[in-house]
Here is the input.
Amino acid sequence: MKLEGRRSRLAKGVMTMVADDAFWDDLREDLADPDFLRAYVTNWVRVTTTDSIINGLDDARQTAQLTKAALARAINADPSTLRRLFVAGSHPNPTIGTVAEMASALGMRLTLELMPAAHIETTTRALLSGEIDDIDIRTLVTSVGAVHTSSP
Here is the structure.
């Protein structure tokens, strides 16, 4: 019986690997279309960047021991708007102005920085040319999603 359970788990693991490989193969095929590639990269960048910024602001808010309502009052925003921004699983799309105001109220500022060269090679080229060389698709996804926030 124990052996049967192990075989079942092994079979499920193999099926997961096969399904995983099939996903990456399908994605590679889809990314050959320049319009799909650009849409994929821009959406992935938008989601990962927004999540990173919102998570950084929420961490700073908690460190400052400010409630969401207090932060909203500080920037003259509707408290329900800020609550929605900080809810896990939501898909926030705040304006740059709102983000800058929240950052300022938390003693932070927004800055831009160059991507590492490897990320420029994949992400920027994919957006500008609509093409990717025969790179590992997982590398593209990793470089596109590589966003961080830093504190002074």
Observations:
- Residues 1-18, 147-152 have pLDDT under 50 and may be disordered.
- The helical segments are 2-30, 34-63, 68-74, 79-85, 96-105, 117-129, 137-144.
- Residues 9 and 58 are 39 Å apart (CA to CA).
- The two ends are 57 Å apart (CA to CA).
